[in-house]
Each structure stands twice: as C-alpha cells, then as structure tokens.
Amino acid sequence: MKKILFIALLFLAVGSYCQDFDPVTGIEDDYELVEFRVYPNPVTDFITVVVDVREKEFTLFFFTMDGKIISEMQITHERTVFNLSMINKGLYMLAIYSKDKKQANLVRILKL
C-alpha cells in the first residue's frame, strides 16, 4: 500500500513512473512499464482499460490523489469497462500491476 502511494506521489512530481531502484529502501526494482490504454480521459461515467492479458494477470488500483484506494480489481480480459458514475468529480490515479509485480504503470484520470 505504501509503495502504491509512493509511486503515485512520484508520478505527480515527475509526470511519469520509471525507476531503477526504490529510493526508500535503495533496493533495485525490476519493473517494466505495463503497456495499456485508458479512455476516455477525462471520463464522465464509464472508462475502458485495454491491456494485453494473454501472458499475465493484472490488478488495477483506482485511488484518490491523497492515496485512499477507492477500488481494486482483477483484470482478466483484454478490454475491461469500469463504471465510475458513482464517484465525485476530481483528479484520480489508476495504477496497474502484473500479478508477479514485475510490471507496473500509472495514469492520472480526470472525472468530470
């Protein structure tokens, strides 16, 4: 959980996430960026996440800018649609991790 929040804060600071080591522990991370698409962004009701799930399983975290996780979902299909109509307008983060924690990526989502 702390690592997800750290990644989100790092992303906000530099605009993207790609690092060779964890600055908190100094231990090298072997993350590869997960190639995925999210649309539409900004979103009003439904958002679509497209990721190649043929080789790996992925978990998606949707959380507020202060690090509160709103939802955690398993991605089992290449194209997954999520209903965001119940959340308030604002800026959110969407993080995706492979099950083996070897791939990760992060994107900002604007809810209108």
What topology emerges from the helices and strands here?
Layout lengths: L1 H13 L17 E2 L2 E4 L6 E6 L6 E7 L4 E7 L3 E5 L6 E9 L4 E9 L1
Parallel strand pairs: 1-8
Antiparallel strand pairs: 2-3, 3-6, 4-5, 4-7, 7-8
Describe it.
With 112 residues, this protein is mainly beta. The protein has a single domain, classed as Sandwich (Immunoglobulin-like), CATH 2.60.40. The chain has one helix at 2-14; strands at 32-33, 36-39, 46-51, 58-64, 69-75, 79-83, 90-98, 103-111. Strands 1-8-7-4-5 form a 5-stranded mixed beta sheet, with helices on one face. Strands 2-3-6 form a 3-stranded antiparallel beta sheet, with no helix packed on it. The longest helix is centred in the N-terminal third of the chain and has 13 residues, at 2-14. The chain is globular. Residues 9-26 have low confidence and may be disordered.
